[in-house]
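Appendix C: a fully annotated inverse folding record. The material below is reproduced so that readers can follow the format used throughout the book. The structure is listed first as tokens, followed by the designed sequence.
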């Protein structure tokens, strides 16, 4: 029960239920296939991370060399020591650090491109399959659930005959002529003579319900009222 409405996933009848199961399975497989293709695209593009990692590794190597050079600079020599240290800092700013920063930027760019390409490949076909089919399945489940609620209430309240009359008139107004004449050779005569069973059964079948669902249910007999 959702939002006050009964939801029934699959009809009672075998073939309509089987067709919906097959359709559900096909849509799920369609979604999985395209999601997997999107994942493959993502992995392929992310394989380019090796380029960014190589640039970062080169920058780290330069920085390690420069750090070793700084440690090797002799101390206590006026002007020369400071000159060598400043030269090492300059080399770091213009060689190692820029390479590391560039590698990280390339890494981020590759990640963004991989995500965008994966979504562009996978999302449109997935939505193309899910949105129309999902909308139709939701309406179908609500319709079958509403039909089931209709026959249950009619059976529980002992108004199965009146419910069959309603279904018969609805069959005449909604079924195609082919469906109508397949259900009864004389639909007008059935209505005029109050023979509702065939038309009501046709309407139940169209709703996906078993025709035996609309049967009177014996209500518990209330004890006779006794006055004080």
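Designed amino acids, in order:
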């Amino acid at each position: 029960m959702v939002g006050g409405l009964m939801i029934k996933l699959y009809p009672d009848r075998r073939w309509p239920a089987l067709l919906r199961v097959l359709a559900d399975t096909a849509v799920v497989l369609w979604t999985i296939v395209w999601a997997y293709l999107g994942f493959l695209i993502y992995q392929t593009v992310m394989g380019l991370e090796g380029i960014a990692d190589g640039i970062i590794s080169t920058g780290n190597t330069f920085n390690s060399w420069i750090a070793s050079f700084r440690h090797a600079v002799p101390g206590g020599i006026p002007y020369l020591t400071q000159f060598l240290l400043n030269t090492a800092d300059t080399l770091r700013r213009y060689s190692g650090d820029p390479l590391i920063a560039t590698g990280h930027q390339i890494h981020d760019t590759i990640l963004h491109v991989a995500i965008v390409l994966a979504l562009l490949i996978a999302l449109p076909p997935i939505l193309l399959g899910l949105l129309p089919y999902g909308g139709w399945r939701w309406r179908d489940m609500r319709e079958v659930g509403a039909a089931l609620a209709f026959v249950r209430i009619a059976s529980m309240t002992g108004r199965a005959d009146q419910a069959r009359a309603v279904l018969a008139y609805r069959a005449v107004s909604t079924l195609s002529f082919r469906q109508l004449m397949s259900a009864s050779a004389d639909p007008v005569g059935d209505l005029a003579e109050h023979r509702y069973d065939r038309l009501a059964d046709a309407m139940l079948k169209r709703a996906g319900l078993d025709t035996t669902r609309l049967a009177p249910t014996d209500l518990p007999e209330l004890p006779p009222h006794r006055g004080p």
